[in-house]
Design brief:
Bound molecules: cytidine-5'-triphosphate
Number of domains: 1
CATH topology: Rossmann fold
Oligomer: single chain
Structural class: alpha/beta
CATH superfamily: CoaB-like
Strand order of the largest sheet: 5-4-1-6-9-10-12-13
Distance between the termini: 7 Å
């Protein structure tokens, strides 16, 4: 059994001015189910760090954030002694370098918004990962999905990447089902289309398998 796990969920929201922001289509459903499944597996401490979403698990320590920078800060404040990190959050890749304190007016026909990269939280966790920690990431791709997935798995030092192809038949966002692949170093496994709650069950089963293979906490099994 794991003592302490950290799950991120939802989108992040990057403000532009007092009325506008940059975000994405993540609903937070998958992260919600991953947290609920963790509760069923008697994990003593579940830390749930989430961007804006209405899917908040009960009886779990929820830390609400807005921006990627806030999510990063809360993650690194809480990561000590965590056995499993599951980065479900759809972290905004870019933010505006400056926040406009007043509403931007439509004074010109065209406008250009400058964006700068957010830090990659999963990459940073992967660099610092200890041998007895398990790191899980999620990725949604529209093309070259396995090539991109394998690269991300290695670059970010993940033990498991939950990968899905975004298409008309599998929108992934804001729906209750998804069709995903499990990428681990050396293996690609396709799961049939299933409810996100069942994906959560499969993700936790896989995490327990990885823990056994890595001989982490073998005393408890
Ligand atoms: N992620 C993160 N910090 C970011 C961006 C992404 O921690 N700034 C994490 C997400 O939580 C997810 C994984 O990285 O677990 C996949 O992110 P994704 O955006 O699909 O992949 P990228 O590596 O950012 O590559 P790209 O956007 O170019 O496809």
């Amino acid at each position: 059994m794991f003592d302490r796990v950290l799950i991120t969920s939802g989108p992040t929201v990057e403000p532009i001015d007092p009325v506008r922001y940059i975000s994405n289509r993540s609903s937070g459903k998958t992260g919600f189910h991953i947290a609920n499944e963790a509760k069923k597996r008697n994990i003593s401490e579940i830390i749930f760090i989430t961007g804006p979403t209405c899917y908040l698990p009960s009886e779990v320590r929820c830390i609400k954030v807005e921006t990627a920078m806030e999510m990063r800060a809360r993650v690194f404040e809480n990561i000590e002694n965590v056995s499993v990190v599951i980065m479900v959050a759809a972290v905004s890749d870019y933010k505006t370098p400056t926040y406009f304190p007043h509403k931007i007016k439509k004074n010109s026909e065209k406008m250009t918004l400058e964006l700068e990269k957010n830090p990659d939280i999963l990459l940073e966790i992967g660099i610092k990962k200890k041998d007895n920690q398990i790191l899980v990431g999620f990725a949604a791709e529209t093309e070259n999905i396995f090539e991109n997935g394998k690269r991300k798995l290695a670059e970010k030092n993940m033990d498991l990447l939950v990968l899905n192809e975004i298409s008309k038949s599998n929108p992934g966002f804001n729906v209750d089902t998804n069709e995903v692949y499990f990428l681990t170093p050396g293996e690609i496994k396709k799961l049939p289309r299933m409810n996100k709650s069942d994906i959560a069950v499969n993700v936790w089963d896989k995490i327990f398998d990885i823990a056994r293979d890595k001989k982490i906490y073998e005393r408890q099994f």
